[in-house]
Amino acid sequence: MTAKITSLGAGLMERTGRMSSARKYALLFILGLFVLSLVQLIAGTKQLTAPGTWGAALRLTVPIMLAALGGLYSERSGVINIGLEGMMIAGTWFGAWAGWQYGPWAGIAFGLIGGALFGLIHAIATVTFAVDQIVSGVAINILAAGSMRFLSSALYTADTGGGATQSPRIQGFIGTFNVPLVSEWLGALSDRGWFFISDVAGIGAGMTTRVSWFTLLALVLIPATWWLLWRTVWGLRLRSAGENPWAAESLGVPVLRMKYWGVVISGALAGMGGSYLVVVQAGIYREGMTAGRGFIGLGAMIFGNYSPFGLLAGSGIFGYSDALRLRQDSVHAILLLLAIGLMMFGTYSLFKRNYQGSATQGVFAMLFFIWWFTTDDVPGQIVTATPYIVTLLVLTIASQRLRFPAADGVKYRRGEAH
Amino acid sequence: MNERQRVVELVDITKTFPGVLANDNAHLSVGLAEIHAVVGENGAGKSTLVKILYGMQTPDSGTVRVKGKDVHFRSPKDAIRSGIGMVHQHFMLADNLTVLENIILGAEPTRGIALDLRGARDKILSLCDQYGMKLDPDVLVEELSIGERQRIEIMKVLYRGATILILDEPTAVLVPQEVDDLFVSLRELQAEGVTIIFISHKLDEVLTISDAITVMRAGRTVASVKPGDITARDLAELMVGSDLPTPDTTVSTVTDVVELRIVGLTSLHTDGRVAIEDITFDIHRGEIVGIAGVEGNGQPQLVDTILGVRDAVAGALHLAGKDISGFDTKMRRDEGIGIIPEDRHRQGLLLDSPLWENAMLGHQSKKPFARGIWVDRTGARDITREIVERFDVRTPGVDVNAVALSGGNQQKLIVGKELILDPSVLIAAHPTRGIDVGAQAAVWEELRQARREGMAILLISADLEELIGLSDTLLVLFDGRIVAKLDPADVTPKTLGSHMTGVAVEEEAL
Q1: If I label B25, which of A382, B95, B207, B386 is the partner at 20 to 30 A Cα–Cα?
Q2: A128 domain-assigned
Q3: Is B258 on the interface with A (CB under 8 A)?
């Protein structure tokens, strides 16, 4: 929920590609934390800011974020990538196979290659042959699911522990680290039970304790992507291909090659997200283990307005709600959180003179509040659905600010410039 | 005038596209530091010829010589390396990138592996100084006006060190004052030794600015002349190959019956900014009211608000005395409002559908296109055939797809399908944009005919001659408001231009 608030600024950040007004978003972030504390106090739970919740949230965020980041490269180069899910599936399978054969780091590398392979197929179809990008993406998803099943039958059934729908367990695991001093210090502070301070410390402790090296690697990709896309020649050219390929071509930019780069990197990152599921979370490949995270990543990217920091916030919301789902007793408080969050958005909309949006959000806020007040329990499905609810509601105000790449989804052929 | 050194020579260029002979042994010879105009009608092959010079197209046969050397450009990159730069008619800019990013794209300075943004900014600002241009490198292009965008385009070319500059109809989108500014800049560039190839079909401008003129017709070079040796009339005749049609004022048919009354109409952009404000005017039966204005001053918003596509936040519409403010778009059309949309490809036609389906658009629930909830295919085909015949749409039949027709014939179909059911009010937004002279004359004649028969017409156009020639009343839209009501009989493009740029308003304020 806090991430939701910070992501409002993603649009601005994206426009200029500059990390400006960082202070404003830091303030919003703190405000979000405060609301979280408050909700927790009212609802009488500890789980919303518990280190365990936030540690899990971080682990659940990373694969979604990697998929979203993959989507970013592709869509910024002007190719819609609905095949992220398929590329991620390829990542899980290849990651598991190499992890089983050579260990976890090889798993990451092969997951990346597997995803990139399917990215390449998408690129050949959409860029070279100008196939409809949605059609190709859907085909990639089907193709990936089917061919991984085939590979599993071929390679996993003969050995112990594997089968047509799952791999043998991978060898070893990727190490974790605690941020020295900070982790213990915040952990101690979070046990004090002080309002707000202990809550913030709990969140900090969760995100600094037993962090996988893979997680760190993934998180570094966010600022790295920003730098690559907004501060290098390559990045400018990639973005120009997605904004106005005809202009780019007229200036000698190899538009088709940039699109290839975008889509293949997209596949590689989605594949890396898949390998994270295998290497860090499950230790094994299971059919269907991506569970739509590729699509969710696409949603997180759109939510984040096609910017790296925005999509981090978007993925964070999904990851956090997913983490809450695993912690049964805090589930009820989420209704109150939704109510208060919506109320704040409603006020913001009112301020922006978006009366219709404001009214909608106000009504939903009231409904969630009544629901929270009159019940003691909610079905687990609601928590699972929270990210989707949040996304839908946020899009009711954010959609007007969304700025997708102007030539995203356009079938581009060389020499068709007007 | 002594012969200048030839820097660009195109000899016997032939280029065919599927079904079209775009260039047929065309020639072009341009001297050093010359402003060389290439004139011709739409579709005469001017654009193809310069695209070949710029490496965007490869010729089927013929020779391209630059600075005396034979060249074979395979992409614009090769052309740029030879010092050739092109400013396209439709600006080649990415709206969501900054001015600086647009300028450096393709020729980016680097420091290590990162972009050298500071170096680029310094270079752009010093070029701005040198040529007296004003540009802010750090704003997004989407926030800029047309004139500023054109300056970015020119700067893009200069930034690459071009000495041969191709301008594709640079004045088509500018108002007279901006044209003057552009010409001053071109003279400065010429003084610095830059060769300029200038495509246009505005003959008075061509005669003003150029040192030499190449005339093209149907893909061929029909003449190479000096501006001093020829009059605009003769040039036009060379271009068209026959007499030039002009919009002229005929006897007034304006009645005193108000057909459409617009009172205080106001609407907003989606972000809350005012799009049009307090628009009030009447259109009488048999009257053409022309709306003049630089693009981006609320013309499409005005059209959309009258049609009900966009909600009005204030104001009222009365059609033949009946308040239609609360009506939705379909009801308004059923009451008798017709529309020739601004962008025929985006708003006017389904390119991949047959003509008879296109003719149905906007009439989809009316006879003879429909019978109850069913499409009346026979009725629709019959009436489309009638449109094709009456409005001289050149097509093999009504079952061909709209995409197969030329721009002029597509436009005649749109005009025809709107007029065939006799609306009482017609909104014509840029009715002759991008179509050839023959089709233009036909559309003008249809509008005049409709006016004679008592239709009330709202004409929105960027072509000032069209506006002045057809309109009975001229309104100037600036910044979403009507700033002047002029009589077309005694207005010159110059005075109109000063209203359109807001200069007149500022002068009055002083």
Answers
A1: B207
A2: yes
A3: no
Question: Does residue A224 fall inside a structural domain?
Answer: yes
How far apart CA A183 and CA A140 sit, in angstroms, is 42
ipTM: 0.81
Residues found in chain B: 510
B74 touches chain A (CB under 8 A): no
Query: The domain containing residue A347 runs over which residues?
Result: 327-404
Number of neighbouring beta carbons within 10 Å of residue A42:
12
> What is the signed CA dihedral for B250, B252, B257, B259, rounded to 10 degrees?
30
> Per the CB < 8 Å rule, is B156 touching A251?
yes
Candidate from A343-352, A381-390, B390-399, B458-467 with smallest mean pLDDT: A381-390
Question: Where do we find the tokens 């499905």?
Answer: A381
Which pLDDT tens digit goes with each residue over B345-378?
888 899 889 999 999 998 888 888 888 889 999 9
How far apart are alpha carbons B252 and B489 in whole angstroms? 11
Among the ranges A15-29, B240-254, B428-442, which has the highest mean pLDDT value?
B428-442
Q: Is-contact B276 B298, C-beta < 8 A?
A: yes
Mean pLDDT of all residues in B477-506 = 75
In chain A, residues with a C-beta closer than 8 Å to the C-beta of B117 are 231
Contacts of B97 in chain A (CB under 8 A): 236, 239-240, 243
* CB-neighbour burial class of residue A325 (10 A; exposed 0-12, middle 13-18, buried 19+): buried
* pLDDT in the model for residue A203: 87
Q: What is the rounded average pLDDT for all residues in chain B?
A: 85
CATH number of the domain encompassing residue A256: 1.10.3470
Residue of B nearest to A397 (CA): B271
Q: Would A234 be classed as within a structural domain?
A: yes
Distance, C-alpha B176 to centroid of its chain: 15
Q: What separation, in Å, do the N-terminal and C-terminal C-alpha atoms of chain B show?
A: 46
The answer to whether residue A211 sits within a structural domain is yes
The answer to whether the beta carbons of residues B453 and B426 sit under 8 Å apart is no
Q: Does residue B244 surpass a pLDDT of 50?
A: no
Which chain B residues are closer than 8 Å to A415 by Cβ? 56-57
Strand B337-340, strand B425-429: pairing: parallel
